[in-house]
């Protein structure tokens, strides 16, 4: 037996044994089925063809804030129905209060989504790609890995937030500005972030909250791409500065 394996076995024994941590991710109904006119305030609809996220880190932290359990990441298309598994890994049987999730570029962008955006009688395509590197810190309620059992954590991706008009917790789903930019933009009526560079958030009553450096709708959308992660259906997680 190698020294590293021996140390691991000793740790498992001294801490009450091992269980399993299963990590999944899901986009929920908005990404799987689309966003309807009932959800938007300006008679728009969105259908996602793809919504890919690059999860580069999924870990449990111990009481000292150190990494205790780590699951491998990957690229996941959240338009697929139901939860998708990152991994099931061994974990020391213990209580854990915090998970840390990182969405960052690796082989490709951190977030990329394609689909169609319709407002009124006219629909356009969109191809939104982001290179943001965001670490989320998520509180876990009554979370414990038990010896010989598996405990699951679900990483929720709230992709509809790309169409929210606020960088805070409040706000409404509005897509008319994005739709107009795509119609008026150069090319084949496919909306990209570049089409939004000339639009000022102040002209459209977008709420930037504490992000006073955000001036254009393009910058707003990039910042919004850093607000997508929640955990176990309990809402969004905190972004680590």
> What shape does the CA trace take?
elongated
Q: How many domains?
A: 1
Q: Helix content range of the residues, please? A: 10-25%
Backbone structural class: mainly beta
* Unreliable runs: 1-15
Radius of gyration: 20 Å
Total number of helices: 4
Mean pLDDT: 90
Number of strands: 15
Oligomeric organization of the protein chains: single chain
Strand content: 35-45%
How would a crystallographer describe the biggest sheet?
9 strands, mixed
H and E string: HEHEEEEEEEEEEEHEHEE
- Alpha-carbon distance between the two ends: 42 Å
Topology, element by element:
Elements: H1 3-14, E1 18-26, H2 28-33, E2 44-61, E3 67-71, E4 74-77, E5 84-92, E6 94-95, E7 98-103, E8 111-119, E9 122-130, E10 134-139, E11 144-145, E12 150-157, H3 176-184, E13 190-191, H4 217-224, E14 229-231, E15 238-239
Parallel strand pairs: 1-12, 9-13
Antiparallel strand pairs: 1-5, 2-3, 2-4, 2-7, 2-8, 6-11, 7-10, 8-9, 10-15, 12-14
Task: Note the main attributes of this structure.
single chain, 241 residues, mainly beta, 4-stranded mixed β-sheet, 4 helices, 15% helix
Task: Summarize this structure briefly.
The protein is built from four helices and 15 strands. With 241 residues, it is mostly beta strands. The protein has one domain (3-239).
Can you tell me about this structure?
The protein contains four helices and 15 strands. It has 241 residues and is mainly beta. The protein has one domain. The N and C termini lie far apart (42 Å). The model is unreliable at 1-15 (pLDDT under 50).
